Amino acid sequence: MKTILLTSADSVKKAKDLLKFSLRQAVTACFLLNESLATTNVAEGLYIARDVVKSMRYLGTRAIFNTHMHDLARNLDEVNTTVKGDSKIESLVTGVENGQRSFKVFIAPPQGVSYAKDIAEKYGVTFDKIKKQIDRQRADSGVSP
């Protein structure tokens, strides 16, 4: 059995509920968690998520845990060696080929990027693009900077 962690609790109650459900379903279920333990403060979310991931390993829970908390996936070898369990925690990442995301998934440490720059450029919300739009609007309306 393998617990898989993808490299990001809006409350402690959510984490507790997740573990309670894991206890009942650990052998038969595969959990899909998408930013499930994200909070407004990354450090606090990381604190909770580390203990939840350790507990899931101890239980033998199978899961895909998608998160932007890259630090969560950086010390998986330590978790795998210090916490007893039938599952193994791995970090999965998506690939990049020729500068484009391939969406091919492979086992590797977190890359440290979440492609926010690509998204900002795609939708025109980089400073340079916003500045050009402001300058164009000012020029069209006759307003000087």
What does this structure look like?
Strands 2-3-1-4-5 form a 5-stranded mixed sheet, with helices on one face. The radius of gyration is 20 Å and the shape is elongated. Helix content is 46%, strand content 21%. The N and C termini lie far apart (62 Å). The model is unreliable at 1-11 (pLDDT under 50). The longest helix has 18 residues, at 42-59. The chain has helices at 12-25, 42-59, 70-74, 76-82, 116-122, 127-141; strands at residues 3-6, 30-34, 62-66, 89-97, 100-107. Strand 2 (30-34), helix 2 (42-59) and strand 3 (62-66) form a beta-alpha-beta unit. 20% of the residues are buried. It is of the alpha/beta class.
Structural class: alpha/beta
What is the overall number of helices? 6
Biggest beta sheet summary: 5 strands, mixed
Q: Considering DSSP H and I runs of 4 or more, what fraction of the residues is helical?
A: 40-55%
Shape: elongated
Strand content: 15-25%
Let me know the average pLDDT: 78
List the secondary-structure elements in sequence, H or E.
EHEHEHHEEHH
Q: End-to-end distance, in Å?
A: 62 Å
In the sheet with the most strands, the strands line up as 2-3-1-4-5
In terms of per-residue confidence, which ranges show pLDDT below 50 for 5 or more consecutive residues? 1-11
- Number of DSSP strand runs: 5
Radius of gyration: 20 Å
